[in-house]
């Protein structure tokens, strides 16, 4: 029997990335083209179809070997109905993408949000390979999460499982309001946005830090300053790590996962981020919830989204 | 075809309760006899067998209709191996109860800890009937938890999922050490033990409260005083409820369950306990994690353990 292949689509605001995976989650070919968000829904959807057909045609595989297409998108998705409810950066609102693509491509299609597909990608073929139960943190502009139970994405009652960035972990006295409207969410301190805010606050109140010399502060400047020994920057990164570790101890008491996978831009801060997360986790999680449990960096980088999207066909 | 029945066993320190359930979780007959813990493991196991045979013989059902026996026990269990690892109140350590009972009774046997079986009982035939994803809190001497995913008990990596009582929720400045060795666990404030401790502390430091007149303070005295308008008692119950609500908001961000079920002795404190939990949950959980989600009292009372144990055969 000829090998089955799966195409994953990472639907972003500026580019659509597509990739072919085999049934072990190995990423074999990739292709990238512009999203053309400004030209509207129809053009974006046509582009997805075009790129999917293109990558299969350019590959050594036959169209018949393609068993399905999965797509991940930043935004709210209704997984059961296959609808992109709201994806501001591509201008989609209530687009029944699954039905449209299934008709155009003639193959089964599944969708999910970017945090969930990244989690599935890592669980399937990255840091979580071979592990059935893990929790994935994606530290970017926000803090995204994905819960993998028995090798599959867990959606919860209304598709909101894994909204780990909105765990309230910061004590009232230090808490600020999150974009979701609530106070003290993990995302307010452990995302790139949170780190930049803490750095700007430090500069504004006159803390002695090399960050005061920067014209613009991005998360990377804070990490670089921390690595260079700047104490203010180090304190900020440690604070981000502290609440990540604290949230992991809470997640462990609920779900007892074997592995926490941490990816996204902020996870590149360096070893000290992981060391602090592990220290806090060891401090707060009861002993039996530590045995055999690890906290590890994501392995697939930006490919996690494509791989996980391809995996939706097999693992959802 | 004749109806199938399942026997559930609630293995306690002083009494063994057994009950017959049909396949809808309806509890049809119950029987209770002494555990005789002091006579050792063999006698306790013989008693289980005796009571199981007795209740089926006394019922209108034939032995052939019995499809299996489930047992719940307070302590550490290895569900996969069917071993009671440590159950101090019945004096069991490393007892391969499943293998022993299967040989003696000649039917499939499953075991789990008391918090998990109570959760399954409520999910199967109590407050969670018809709901696939819920989280159950049992507020007794400690705070037990059970996670129900797709109608079944979720065990996690090492069988420790649902250890909700050991979520660290109390801020450092107010935290005390938990029996597990960690600081600020939910159990330190929201269990009967925690409530009694807070009451004693209040009396000792001279707070003006009717509790000062009690010879011995049990949780019930604190609830009664709170209902009668005692402000100190009310503050204590509200504090227990506050951290329950806070932990629920955290659980929701991870698992997005449809329902939180709250049972156990402390849940009898009264409506104000539930009102405060709901208020705090509404304050801390993002809006989409509130829609359609409820916090409800357990319905089965002490029978939850027997029903859930019987349910282990169908739902694990």
UniProtKB/TrEMBL annotation, chains A, B:
Pfam families (UniProt xref): ROK
Any Gene Ontology CC annotation: cytoplasm
InterPro entries noted in UniProt: ATPase_NBD, ROK, ROK_cs, ROK_glcA
EC number(s) reported in the record: 2.7.1.2
Organism superkingdom: Bacteria
UniProt keywords, alphabetically: ATP-binding, Kinase, Nucleotide-binding, Transferase
UniProt family annotation: Belongs to the ROK (NagC/XylR) family.
Identification of the protein by name: Glucokinase
